[in-house]
Design goal:
Chains A, B: Pfam families: GlcNAc_2-epim (PF07221). Chains A, B: It comes from Pedobacter ginsengiterrae. Chains A, B: Keywords: Isomerase. 2 copies of one chain form a homodimer. Chain A is mostly helical and about 400 residues long. The first copy, chain A, contains 13 helices and 14 strands. In chain A, strands 3-4-5 form a 3-stranded antiparallel beta sheet. In chain A, strands 12-13-14 form a 3-stranded antiparallel beta sheet. Chain A has a two-stranded antiparallel sheet with strand order 1-2. In chain A, α5 packs antiparallel against α6 and α10 packs across α11. The first copy, chain A, is globular. At the A-B interface, β5 of A face β5 of B.
Amino acid sequence: MSYTSEQLKGLSLFYKNQLLNNTITFWFPRSIDEEYGGYLFMRDADGSLIDDDKAVWIQGRGAWLLSTLCNTVEHRKEWLDWAKSGIDFLNKYGFDADGQMFFHVTRSGQPIRKRRYYFSETFAVIANAAYAKASGDEQAAEKARYLFGKCIEYSTTPGLLPAKFTKTRPTKGIGVPMIMMNTAQQLRETIGDPRCDEWISIWIEEIKNDFVKDDIKCVMEQVAPDGSIVDHIDGRTLNPGHAIEGAWFILHEAKYRNNDPELIALGCKMLDYMWERGWDKQHGGILYFKDVYDKPVQEYWQDMKFWWPHNETIIATLLAYTLTGDEKYARWHKLVHNYSYEKFHDKENGEWFGYLHRDGSLAQTAKGNMFKGPFHLPRQEWYCAQLLQGLGY
Amino acid sequence: MSYTSEQLKGLSLFYKNQLLNNTITFWFPRSIDEEYGGYLFMRDADGSLIDDDKAVWIQGRGAWLLSTLCNTVEHRKEWLDWAKSGIDFLNKYGFDADGQMFFHVTRSGQPIRKRRYYFSETFAVIANAAYAKASGDEQAAEKARYLFGKCIEYSTTPGLLPAKFTKTRPTKGIGVPMIMMNTAQQLRETIGDPRCDEWISIWIEEIKNDFVKDDIKCVMEQVAPDGSIVDHIDGRTLNPGHAIEGAWFILHEAKYRNNDPELIALGCKMLDYMWERGWDKQHGGILYFKDVYDKPVQEYWQDMKFWWPHNETIIATLLAYTLTGDEKYARWHKLVHNYSYEKFHDKENGEWFGYLHRDGSLAQTAKGNMFKGPFHLPRQEWYCAQLLQGLGY
């Protein structure tokens, strides 16, 4: 089964319509905090606020989304104003005295928690970069470039951030090269930065050499520094939806590099390996965690269906299909698209639920919390609509 | 419905038989590490090893269990030898240079992770205390008393251990007074310690005054330092099985204090409040997390059924019934006992599975991992058998 032109046009319209009239309208304008700036994103299914705290990751992601809509869909003044509200809040309250960013702050910006990761920083990079492009604000551009440099420093300087584990059994995660690659892509494609291309190549090499295992057809989530498999519970744990997100970052790079055939092959095989391991043949949907050798994983909720792996898989399969024309990817795209919009989409209130049991029944109703907000779903709808529109659909 | 004497005799035999011929035999002797000492507890349903790492909590819990069997069931030399193996391993490899204990070590005892909690220490207290009683080893007794003092110091000296959160919104958890109370009870009832009674009274007062909320019939998991409810997602999150564990620690204390009526009333109302909030009227079993105002909680897996809340609830309901004769508690005990031995118990291989979906279907097969090992289930079977035997059944 391939997609016809009509079907691709229909998908293009569907994603754009969902984005603008179902997803964005769930979050905005209700989430704008008129009093303190930033966003009040922790909401129940019906949009009611369940917590007025602010998750720093998602403040950045929200500002990125609004700025990106300005840059690519339509330059609406309200979107730009709302983006500025998030950027200003992050500048005022997002940073500790040591320059690191917080993870969780109160409504008025008082810090609750700082973590030993720099994901708050990566989301601040893409937020500032997209906002700088949308607004012409040179300070935001400088901030994006400065923070990108800090992230490179954090990722390449062992011991700069406090360690969670001792040095007994060193490991590294695919999350770092993945998020850094996507951060660099966003930076490059908004305000540009001469460092990006070279670093992206380095991170892709690391993923290809150390995390992708052709002999067992698998993308590892963690490995030893030399890329070998760490045969303990944590080291064996796979996150298929995350690896599939990595696959589309690489397919995106392939497209940017004039359909580079080696990168297309790499991204497609990552998708192939992890679709095979992650797609639930019994109930449909992407399983959250799997053990590389099918042993039990530590995380008891490993067979739940989360919203975001489905967003990543919708993007990855559509991108793979448009780059290769392989009908397998159209079939997979249709499977995951239909599953997701049937099971996750809240027909009554808009947006998606976040958490289903393995069998597809709803586990809880929150639309926004410390980890969920206007990011994976609107990014998917935006990315797919842009992709198809760019191809003439 | 009350229990007849015959039924109580039947339960007494059932628990003892399960303990000795189904639960203990799953773990031992296969888990004894003849090469490095300590225990290899991370096992799949059939007993096969899934990881040879060692969780420090569970090394202590295992040594406690084996020593306790010697002290209360039968003085078997093999149990004492196996207990010594765990005690020796902890002494050799459990402690960092700063005196704090690790959380996770390799098979040979190399440290993998240290956490900012002192639960490893509390389990080392009860392990050493029980082992000292079983063996007469005075060094173990000293170690237990010394570590108990360290735990009191950690629990009463803000800033002594690194903080997870900033000082913006201070909270405290019921876990600290609960685990300290149980640690003191174990210490007192094995080798004795003059500090225990007074500290236990202090911790019970703290639970009664700050965590038990009669106006909304609830036991909070976290509160502000003054006992007020923190109306944010984390502050609202209840853990009914944990609160029910706290209830039976208090009922145990009531029994120790010649059936102190105030403590019986306190323990019973904690059980009443949290049975009402935690028991799943649709599928049976104890739900893992609930929001105090029935809003969504952060933890997406909040409606899963874990093994250990069921162990705690079996103990609490049986203890409440034997202390009060209230037939409600016999009815609840029967409900949770039947649910648990039907759903969690592995009829094929012995012991219990750890993790069920809300509907009671199996979520994953591990018998042992970083958090599960020979503790909650054998402690329940041991405690209930001892309780009934002590009452003449």
